[in-house]
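Preliminary data (for renewal application), manganese (II) ion complex.
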Amino acid sequence: MITYLKMKTQNTVTAKKRLNISPIEEWPIYKQRPLVIAGPCSAESEEQVMRTAAGLAASGRVDLFRAGIWKPRTRPDQFEGVGSMGLAWLRKVREEYGLPVSVEVATEKHVYEALKHGLDAVWIGARTSVNPFALNEIAAALKGADIMVFIKNPINPDLELWIGAVERISKAGISRIAAIHRGFSSWEKSSFRNQPRWQIAVELRQRIPDLGLLCDPSHMGGDRSFIVDLSQKAMDLNYDGLMIETHIDPSNALSDKKQQVTPSELVEILDSLILRSPTSDNPEFLETIEDLRSQIDVYDNLLLDILESRMQVAETIGRFKKEHNITILQSTRWKEVVGNAVEKGVRKGLTPEFIHTILEAIHQESITHQMKVMKED
Ligand code: PEP
Ligand code: MN
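Predicted structure:
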């Protein structure tokens, strides 16, 4: 445990030393939490871009306008964006409405184009942050530029790859870098388009504390009905901001139509969020929370004691099986254990997923302990 904590502290320190990242609260576009990035999935026409931007500017709730012009689509016959022509529309948005503007970049050519048109920010999409070659190319093209860079999580749940992308951009001399959590793709069916796996983003924050963290509930949920809940969850986890796809006419959008909202729906979503502050200096609050936390510590210690005893029994079983020449894995018995525990756990208000996860981990650890004793002479 201690070694692990030490390792984490060292990681944090190393990352901090190496990366010169400007905290998002100090960026000129930041006014308050949540920082809001909004705009259509894709720029489709000058009129659609300008009308969406007009709605967003009038709301006064948006800090950065977004629109994709080079779209990474799954299939080749889907709308792949209007290309460089959209950059002029984005400039017009900034001129007419005073909104800073951003675009997705995936190649060095995209970066040169974005820089040539003086965009305020770029974001690197999930299909690009997964690829170190692309990141190196983008970083080289961005070298020394005065621009904000948002880095979405890679499509697969690999924290090191996400950190690697941040490091590559940071090494190019960019200090205004923030991360966007948009969830991870998975073969398994789930209600969300991309699985959140919140702990990966939370771990990123622990590893690079200065790195701003936003959530993209549009791509995470894949459906506008999930945006409120996912945004609230992000706020409860103290994220700095949100990227929400907004379109003047979502049902006719050329990409991601199910997940886009209108500018007025965006305002409703933002109004519904409850913003809790991460700390308080109210003495009564502090005293109660301290008391509750010490109760948690008691239970956590009890859990560890129970797990220790559990593993001691597993080792005894391991020795016993060894004496009788019996295999470690006995799946019928294990299925029975899980089935009973799920039933019992659900009655206690625990979710079946949680019980499965925790029992799976305990089972693995048991096997490790049994293997250890099986190998003993
Ligand atoms: C986007 O923001 O339009 C986009 C393509 O996102 P992602 O990389 O998260 O799929
Ligand atoms: Mn999209």
